[in-house]
């Protein structure tokens, strides 16, 4: 990989792989490593075959300007992120279709390291935007995206992928927020430096509460969970339709609150 200017050697080495706490983050190559990604995918999502993203798509992603990046513990692949090259507003961008870490390795910063490596690789190729979709009901992912990466969300896709076989989706419509990660934005730079994205929320900020009971309801009363999902969908569509962006999550009185702010005032 050719990189101009100062720091060439450091950066090249960095993109070849980053070893910390026994976990190496680097690009994946070859069928055996893509197969290992599919094993992690199966383990995390537990979908039926019809919903599994197969090896050839990993090959396509890696060969057409996208990314397949792995987290390795010794020889074992314990996480990966996969992105496809896209085109948005006349510029190249990456659509990060899947990011997964084996649950035994959660909450050790591996997901964040995968995303940071993804960002460095994108920037080294002149790409300044990465997007992905996430389930607004899974507040851990919202926390990860907004508070740990500095992404924002301005679009809501009702039932984006249809109803899937993954138990993670609990038979609900696959409603998704689109995370936009503007890689060089002041917000992202602040968050990656360990600071708060914004010193204070806008005075006009709106809140949408994901009830704490929802995770349990998904398992015990799917109809009630679906009803709550459709109420939340209406709220998100209302505020995003008014030009607001979801920018943060915070503990609320009865669950986790999304914070939405008028995008133009930010
Ligand atoms: C999303 C995912 C990739 C994150 O991986 P990870 O290695 O656990 O990520 P990190 O450790 O870097 O960060 C997770 C953060 O969430 C926090 N967290 C954990 N559980 C949480 C919860 N229930 N609510 C809020 N935050 C939570 C962790 O404490 C950590 O934050 P911290 O660094 O401030 O402590 C992983 O959870 C995963 O594979 N999930 C299943 C697949 C999925 O949903 N993928 C994303 C959509 S494609």
Features:
binds coenzyme A; alpha+beta; 8 helices; eight-stranded mixed β-sheet; Aminopeptidase; 266 residues; 30% strand
Cofactors, ions, other ligands: coenzyme A
| Structure annotation, total helices | 8
Distance between the termini: 36 Å
Structural class designation: alpha+beta
Q: Looking at the structure, what is the overall shape? A: globular
Assign the CATH class of the domain at 1-126: Alpha Beta
How many β-strand runs?
A: 11
Low-confidence stretches: 1-13
- CATH superfamily membership of the domain at 1-126, which one? Gcn5-related N-acetyltransferase (GNAT)
How would you portray this structure in words?
Helix content is about 35%, strand content about 30%. The two termini are about 35 Å apart. The protein is globular and about 45 Å long. By secondary structure, it is an alpha+beta fold. It has eight helices and eleven strands. The strands form two sheets. An eight-stranded mixed beta sheet has the order 1-2-3-4-5-6-8-7, with helices on both faces. The chain has helices at about 10-15, 30-45, 55-65, 110-125, 140-150, 185-190, 215-220, 220-240; strands at about 20, 25, 65-75, 75-90, 90-100, 130-135, 150-155, 175-180, 205-210, 245-250, 255-260. Coenzyme A (COA) binds near residues 110, 141 and 143. Coenzyme A binds near residues 101, 109 and 112.
């Amino acid at each position: 990989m050719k990189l101009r200017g100062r720091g060439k050697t450091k950066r090249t080495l960095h993109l070849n792989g980053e070893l910390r706490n026994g976990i190496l983050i680097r690009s994946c190559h070859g069928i055996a490593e893509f197969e290992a990604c599919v094993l992690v995918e199966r383990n995390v999502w537990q979908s039926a075959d019809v919903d599994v993203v197969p090896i050839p798509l990993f090959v396509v992603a890696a060969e057409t300007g996208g990314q397949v990046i792995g987290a390795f513990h010794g020889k074992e692949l314990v996480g990966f992120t996969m992105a496809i090259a896209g085109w948005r507003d006349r510029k190249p961008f990456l659509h990060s279709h899947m990011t997964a870490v084996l649950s035994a390795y959660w909450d050790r910063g591996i997901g964040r390291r995968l995303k940071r490596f993804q960002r460095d690789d994108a920037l080294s190729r002149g790409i300044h935007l990465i997007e992905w979709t996430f389930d607004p009901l899974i507040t851990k992912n919202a926390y990860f995206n907004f508070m740990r990466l500095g992404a924002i969300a301005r679009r809501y896709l009702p039932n984006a992928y249809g109803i899937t076989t993954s138990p993670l989706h609990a038979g609900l419509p696959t409603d998704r927020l689109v995370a936009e990660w503007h890689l060089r934005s002041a917000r992202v730079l602040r968050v990656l430096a360990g600071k708060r994205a914004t010193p204070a929320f806008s005075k006009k900020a709106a809140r949408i509460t994901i009830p704490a009971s929802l995770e349990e309801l998904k398992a015990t009363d799917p109809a009630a969970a679906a009803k709550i999902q459709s109420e939340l969908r209406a709220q998100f569509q209302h505020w995003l339709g008014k030009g607001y962006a979801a920018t943060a999550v915070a503990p609320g009185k009865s669950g986790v609150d999304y914070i939405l702010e008028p995008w133009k005032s930010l």
